[in-house]
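Quick entry between incubations.
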Amino acid sequence: MWGRAVRMERRRRESGETSAAKRRLQMSDIARLAGVSTSTVSRALSGSALVNEETRTRIADLARSLNYSINVGAKNLRLQQNRTVAVVIPYDTASGQSISDPFFLRMLGSVADALTERGFEMLLTRVDAEHLNAAAAFYDGGRAVGIILIGQWHHHDQLNELAARRVPLVVWGAHLAQQLYCTVGGDNFAGGEAATEHLIGLGRRRIAFLGDVELPEVAQRFAGYREALARHRLPFDRRLLAPIAFVAERARAAVQSLIDRKIEFDAVFACSDVLAMSSVSTLRENGRHVPTDVSVVGYDDIEMAAFFNPPLTTIRQSIEIGGRALVDCLFALLEGRAELPKVLSTELIVRATSVPPPNR
Amino acid sequence: MWGRAVRMERRRRESGETSAAKRRLQMSDIARLAGVSTSTVSRALSGSALVNEETRTRIADLARSLNYSINVGAKNLRLQQNRTVAVVIPYDTASGQSISDPFFLRMLGSVADALTERGFEMLLTRVDAEHLNAAAAFYDGGRAVGIILIGQWHHHDQLNELAARRVPLVVWGAHLAQQLYCTVGGDNFAGGEAATEHLIGLGRRRIAFLGDVELPEVAQRFAGYREALARHRLPFDRRLLAPIAFVAERARAAVQSLIDRKIEFDAVFACSDVLAMSSVSTLRENGRHVPTDVSVVGYDDIEMAAFFNPPLTTIRQSIEIGGRALVDCLFALLEGRAELPKVLSTELIVRATSVPPPNR
DNA sequence: ATGAAAGCGCTAACAG
DNA sequence: CTGTTAGCGCTTTCAT
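Done. Structure below.
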């Protein structure tokens, strides 16, 4: 049997504290100081009606004045409950970069807000995009009640596997066939189609497409693009497809490459506003006037799109609605309801980067 | 005494699961299936040399195949340890908005990366900017080993109080006098001075200042602005100060108001790139040419600043260095080292929104 | 090399 | 209304 002194010594050693460091306050300390049992403190702090009003306020005041905070880990363990959601952002080992696209970052903020409103905490983590199923460990280990994955990448199969195991999981991304898991996302096909229709309607004929078609969301936008092209009997030139990641620099390189290779194009449809803005900037540097020579349409409608010069025509995806829908969906799942994937409507926002060609 | 059946029933009820729901796997399950004790499983999974090689791999395989993940909460409780850092973003109840400025969002990403590298998890939460000390609850309750606060707002006093209580805390913000807590931030005075000097050097005389001078960081930039003005014996016109929050719309309104009130100005120094871009957009709408009529300097150098049209002159703060410094600082604190506040150098990036006035 | 048992900080059933 | 006690899932000492 270890005596108290021994326990405290072990604690110090294990936590690497020096002997001067103060021990963290716990319920038994409050109990001792208040001259009651821990049960009473527990009840008092949880606002139980079982405890005397006077005692309760006395204990509450004492706890507050000592900056005592309940140990949520121990409480959760005892209660078999948990108010934490793991929010997971895949990262690409290849490009290896930190998440930086404003759209995803804002989505994170929106999810955080929705979670906070429900009184849940958010454990933010990154996982290798090649091993999305690693995200489930937070659920399996009881660390989180469920998982919100921002970005589905490839590996539809891994996600299906998690869903089959009944891991509470909601993914921001595209609704795919044979999908067991729940997604929330914009209507990518419609978005791609609307953007392309808009450009074609303006009289644009050779529309470059910027986006990594390996990603399901982008693939659907690309399908919408192809569909619009086909409807108007316009040929698709494979050289106009630039399968690039969501990184500004890649858009610059792609546009520059089109120009250098003298591949004609009179419009750009970029799969994010950042890519679009980078494209506009590159076009300008090369003496191509936007929107007259080349019209540009972006995607997401981030805040800055409206301030851009020229203000950017884009496809709006509502971040507020998206973030909230992700959270709503997860909670529905937790309550045992089988949720269908949600496809949120997108909207074409026509601003100044898209006009008819001059010779029309 | 409760029997096993009773326990399981209670568990189901409390967690709101239906009777069909599977119980989460735990160590005792693995032990039973492997025909060993939980001690052995524990040792096997933690790679202890005390367990037979063959047994270890057998247990590891079994655990993996069943998707067993150790319960980190229970483990932490037992071990009195923890690998979680609380990252806290203050929100303003007044403006009440979700965090949206790209700079802070990117900083979050950078901190997440640095934490991930060290094998720590990040608990992301928001607290009311008026009660920053509420952030300490995560530490007091043993939820997190320390706290990173992104944005110091007013309430220097509350933060000092936490530091006095020896809560491991690092704040992104300004280095203030009488500061007991550790901050990491850019050199705001130098940044404000450099921006203003640059504009004055160009021949600009009436420089509007956009930013909430109630915030310590902005106050220091403003002090730099005043200093530069004074050095050149330029008067300061109070009407040119627009004390606005970091919200694009506020910049639009502020610039519009200056124009409507016919207050002359030939330059704008905005305390964030978003404010600067919004200003440029508003100026253009009012027929003022940027940079000729009005030159503009932003702050932060977010990615988009370079793609803006015209490319935005701005003060760069390195997000990568900042995020890493915050994390480094926190770990130093945890190791008992008293860290001094870090003031990171800023850099004036001259692009195209700032030129000499036309009549010079 | 393995198991039995105690206890991390907390809550709730049960007994006063 | 309050205290005693068992136990949440795990690790570790001690005993074998």
